[in-house]
Design a protein that fits this description.
Number of helices: 3
Order of helices and strands: HHH
Structural class: mainly alpha
Oligomer: single chain
Helix content: over 70%
Largest sheet: none
Number of domains: 2
Radius of gyration: 27 Å
């Protein structure tokens, strides 16, 4: 797998954070998995960025709950597909009943 382009930067960590990170790296490095402080920092920042992006997406969806135009459109879609949803449910139930009948007949 090709290695991603990297940039070098300086990070200043509060002493307790650094000590905990260093302890974790030392502990993990005694096992089969070898990690560096750099690996830990990259992993932590990556996880934070994923969480941050997820929060942005959640906030956008939360905004939709307050948007009257969106709510109106959603209600129209539900009404438009109501018949086909019920039809699909009916067909699925008939298929399930047929499978149950077949299973009980073949178990005899």
């Amino acid at each position: 797998m090709p290695q991603a382009e990297t940039r070098t930067t300086t990070v200043r960590l509060p002493r307790p954070v650094y000590d905990q990170a260093r302890c974790l790296v030392d502990k993990e490095s005694r096992g089969r998995t070898r990690i560096s402080l750099n690996d830990l920092i990259v992993t932590a920042i990556t996880a934070y960025l994923k969480m941050y992006k997820r929060k942005q997406i959640d906030a956008a969806f939360a905004g939709m709950a307050e948007d009257a135009d969106y709510q109106k459109e959603a209600k129209l879609l539900v009404e438009e597909f109501e018949h086909s949803d019920w039809e699909a449910l009916r067909i699925e139930e008939e298929d399930l009943e047929g499978e149950l009948a077949y299973a009980s007949d073949s178990s005899r």
